[in-house]
Amino acid sequence: MGEPTTQTLLKSAVEGERSSLARLLSKIERDSKVENEIRTSLAGGQATSLVIGITGPPGAGKSTLISALLSHTTASYEKTAVLAVDPSSPFSGGALLGDRVRMQSHGLGDRVFIRSMASRGESGGLARATSTAIQLLEACGWPLILLETLGIGQVELEVMDLATVVTVILNPGWGDTFQANKAGLTEAGDVFVINKADKDGAQQTRADLQDSLSLMHSPVPIQIFDTIAVKQDGVESLWQGIKDYLKDAQAVGLIEQKLLSRRRRLLMRILQRDFDDRISAYWRSDRGGNQVLSTLAGDLTIEALRNDLFAHMTKLD
């Protein structure tokens, strides 16, 4: 029996077959053609899922906090999917931290679907196929998606392009680097969490964060929550705070504004990525390689190279 087609897997996944969903997610990670096919097949579908971005620096406890949140999210929603972006293996290109080793103590069975995605060198804290993975999960009936970004030493702003609400996780003591990160942090976050709040420096971090957020003009007050995720302390209050934020933001039309702005940024990013792919293909081609060498040697102008590139891209269409 041959390998099932992408459309066969998609039909099965939409009907609720988790193994087909998992196989499709693997395919869209590895193969941009499959990703484009899935995206085309699902075009026009309504974006009905709530996507909560969980971001913050390495060691903030993002995975631990998500695991602690799951019992609360599944009390509010029928089921919850988790997309966790991990570093890539230098050998296989896959995620170094598999979903077998994270968040498996939730005990919620089929009500939770956890998937690790390899960053594959992408900047911004997300994997290349994250947006398509979210689109696929929506089509398969997952009403709530928790999106954990890769911690790379700063707040990764690309999560803003995909999430309905962005939750930023910090630790006590992070205020030492606060000034360098402040602008991006306050732009990215809708809800803020100081995790490991029993550690020294928690009050100073809260004061630094409050000072920064006071400069922001939001129609919905931005809240800061203290949690100790490993003990479940403060997690229920955090989940209630996220729900309250969504309710208040919806009431003043802020959610619609954010979603429109984020869709625009996402559209631009997808277009830029497709152009990058075409430029790379041209660069690798015999003609493109020769044209580049001629430009480097000064025999061809950059404008002539650009025109040849555009002509090559037109032929691809």
Task: Describe the structure in your own words.
- The protein has 317 residues and is of the alpha/beta class.
- It has two domains: 46-252, P-loop containing nucleotide triphosphate hydrolases (Rossmann fold, 3-Layer(aba) Sandwich); 270-316, no CATH class.
- The chain has helices at residues 6-14, 18-30, 32-41, 62-76, 130-139, 178-188, 202-213, 235-251, 254-284, 286-296, 302-316, and strands spanning 50-55, 80-86, 112-118, 144-148, 165-170, 191-195, 224-227.
- The chain has a seven-stranded parallel β-sheet, with helices on both faces.
- Helix 1 packs across helix 2.
Write a brief structural summary.
α1 crosses α2 (18-30), α2 packs across α3 and α6 (178-188) packs across α7. This protein has two domains: 46-252, P-loop containing nucleotide triphosphate hydrolases (Rossmann fold, 3-Layer(aba) Sandwich); 270-316, no CATH class.
